[in-house]
Design a protein that fits this description.
By secondary structure, the chain is an alpha/beta fold. The protein has 15 helices and seven strands. The strands form two sheets. A five-stranded mixed β-sheet has the order 3-4-5-6-7, sandwiched between helices. Helix 2 crosses helix 5 and helix 2 (22-36) packs antiparallel against helix 6.
């Protein structure tokens, strides 16, 4: 093995990473620890496997406002043979020490570039309003930029959530919860449960609540299953790529909800019919929404008859969810960090 192979392996990890670059940052902090503290052995994985997650999280909390929520197994994939195993880390470490942190500087330079790209793309929402926001243009900013393509699924989630939640809120949909009067003896027996959990009692046999859509939240590349859920029984799964039968089966089998909405970039008629007609699936898949539907609904919501009620709400929700999902890295704060480690002296050397 040589340094070129090791750097190529590292660059492959960077290329495959989403915008947050959790795994590359973990590698950078391992190399920093090896170079500065000299208290780990790069050949011995157990000396840094778990501690390096804490080192990574310190950096991620500072610049991203969050940490990785992936499973321990998924996080440890970074040390697999097809990623950056200890043998390659040893080579990177040797080069990194010899160059006073050039490999670290390389990783953080890529991190800065990725966030600069993301911030530029996300500025589209801030610079456009309901009169000129075009969903196709916004999505193309991510499809056409290699560094951002890995984050397109999160953008799709935000796009769908902004539309669905805004429409449901504008429609002022209420849900009524009640119990079967013939089950009153059971309710009386479990009165403490029904009053505290269900908000029902012998004196209160029903109540109304607002219908809402909720995002599950910030997730990771290995997560599968639910993306959104509703207070009225819908489970919503976002798939930004073409839907095939294997993917659809995985979705259906991983979600226990009785009513599933699948949102995807492209769904061919043959596959849709296959899904809806397979035994036991038709009753669970309520509908499949494609990108064409989203584009049409956005156009109607932003510039249609009722745009005054819906348009601004959608743009506001888009901006709010984007800021939560992709907190902007303050250039001055990151620059200070970059310079404090003298990366600016070696990044371009």
């Amino acid at each position: 093995m040589n340094i070129q192979i090791a750097i190529q392996a590292l660059d492959n990890v960077i290329k495959k990473s989403r915008v947050h670059l959790y795994k590359p940052i973990q590698i950078a902090e391992i190399l920093y620890r090896d170079r500065v503290e000299k208290d780990i052995d790069l050949a011995s994985l157990e000396t840094y496997r778990n501690p390096s997650k804490k080192w990574r999280d310190i950096i991620c909390t500072k610049f991203l406002g969050r940490v990785s929520t992936s499973s321990a197994r998924y996080q440890d994939d970074i040390f697999n043979q097809n990623a950056v195993p200890p043998a390659l880390l040893e080579i990177l470490g040797k080069e990194n020490r010899k160059t006073n942190g050039k490999i670290e500087a390389h990783i953080y330079t890529q991190f800065s570039k990725r966030f600069t790209q993301m911030n530029s793309a996300l500025d589209y929402c801030k610079l456009h309003d309901k009169t000129n926001f075009q969903l196709t243009e916004f999505l193309d900013l991510f499809w056409k930029e290699k560094g951002l393509k890995r984050s397109i699924d999160k953008i799709y989630e935000i796009v769908v959530f902004a539309l669905f939640s805004s429409l449901i809120e504008t429609l002022e949909i209420d849900i009524e919860v009640s119990y079967n009067p013939s089950k009153k003896p059971i309710l009386e027996d479990f009165s403490d449960f029904t009053s505290r959990i269900l908000n029902l009692s012998t004196d209160k046999n029903h109540f109304k609540t607002k219908a809402k859509i909720h995002r599950v939240g910030v997730t990771n590349a290995a997560d599968r299953g639910l993306d959104m859920w509703s207070s009225f029984g819908l489970a919503i799964q976002i798939k930004h790529l073409s839907l095939n039968e294997e993917m659809a089966e995985s979705i259906v089998n991983s979600i226990t909800a009785d009513r599933i909405v699948i949102v995807c970039k492209k769904a061919e008629e043959k596959i849709i019919l296959s899904l809806l007609n397979q035994l036991g699936w038709k009753s669970r898949i309520q509908t499949i929404v494609t990108e064409i539907d989203l584009i049409n609904w956005y156009e109607k919501a932003l510039r249609g008859t009722h745009n005054k009620l819906i348009g601004n709400k959608i743009i506001e929700t888009l901006n709010s969810e984007i800021e939560t999902e992709f907190p902007s890295t303050k250039n001055t704060e990151f620059d200070d960090f970059f310079k404090s480690r003298n990366y600016h002296l070696i990044a371009n050397s």
